[in-house]
Amino acid sequence: MLTEFAVLDEQWAARLPDHLSWHEAATLTCAGVTAWNAVTGTRIPKPGQWVLTIGSGGVSLFALQFAKLLGCRVVAITSRAEKADRLRALGADLVVSSTDIPEWGGWAREQTGGIDLVVETGGPATFAQSLIASTLYGHIVLLTLQDASGRSIEMPAALYQRSLATISRLFVGSRSNLEAMLRAVSQHRLKPVIDRVFPFAEAPEAYRHFRQGDVFGKVVIDCA
Questions:
Q1: Which residues contact 191 (CB under 8 A, 6 or more apart)?
Q2: Structural domains of the chain, ranges and CATH numbers in brackets
């Protein structure tokens, strides 16, 4: 909600972890819950298994952090090599630039023996590589089905014939998912990653900054 004041039903509210600021807390209800459900949904990866994330947006970074909380190993794909150190600082075990290795799916499979869970935020541009990277019985969680031009994900039949990966669709989550995530965030004192905070009067600029795509974490608008 882009508003300075709002009237909400008390049942819509959830207690925030004490160690978070309001700016940090604002990142949790959409990107945080989406990433939480992607990682801890129907098939929770076991400690030591491989999770792959794509990019450095809010969902991807939360997925990286949550996977590490579970004891998983993480491969992070980025289009900008200069972000590699920041991804490693968050816990990524392997980082690869898609600019340097456009066919990163084979690289990831070779390095890991196959990815157990792909948090697929890239959509049509990355889906084929995610399928290549997956282990035989891997799991790909689809969060983006179309790109900005309207191009949709296509299933490469030749690739899928070589795979028994499960592909599922996800959109945010429920209040119970939020509360479970908040308990984990509180227990581990996890800190969300904020790219930039904009004042309320600069909301249009905040949206422009977000849409240009070169962010590391969440973009926050301060309504105070």
A1: 19, 20, 24
A2: 43-192 (3.90.180.10), 197-224 (no CATH)
